């Protein structure tokens, strides 16, 4: 499994731009957390990226790396026909 340092800044920023709330919760493995917690983390990801990254646990950082490295842009995925 790749760690957060292997994802690259371009992949990270593209994932942040492409990801909606529902995909964010799924990718980050936050299904068991409260809506308030998830919304706060999602808002931090959108507005305070460095703060959000710094607040993530090692497990969450690994989930993020997996999501970014395995999915790419949903725009690209949805438009491949």
Write the SSE topology.
Elements: H1 9-18, H2 21-28, H3 35-47, H4 49-55, H5 58-71, H6 74-78
Total domain units: 1
Mean pLDDT across the residues is 84
Secondary-structure content class: mainly alpha
Helix % is: over 70%
Provide a count of the helices: 6
Low-confidence stretches: none
Question: Biggest β-sheet, characterized?
Answer: none
Radius of gyration: 12 Å
Order of secondary-structure elements: HHHHHH
Number of strands: 0
Bulk shape: globular
The termini sit apart by 29 Å
* Relative strand content: under 5%
Give an overview of the whole structure:
- The chain has helices at residues 9-18, 21-28, 35-47, 49-55, 58-71, 74-78.
- By secondary structure, the chain is mainly alpha-helical.
- It has one domain (4-73).
- The longest helix has 14 residues, at 58-71.
Question: Brief description of this entry?
Answer:
By secondary structure, the protein is mostly helical. The chain has one domain. It is 70% helix and 0% strand.
């Amino acid at each position: 499994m790749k760690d957060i340092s292997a994802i690259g800044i371009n992949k990270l920023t593209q994932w942040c731009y492409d990801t909606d709330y529902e995909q964010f919760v799924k990718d980050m493995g936050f299904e068991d957390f409260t809506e308030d917690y998830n919304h706060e983390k999602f808002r931090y990801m959108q507005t305070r990226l460095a703060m959000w990254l710094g607040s993530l646990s090692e497990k969450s950082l690994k989930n993020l790396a997996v999501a970014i490295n395995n999915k790419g842009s949903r725009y690209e995925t949805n438009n491949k026909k």
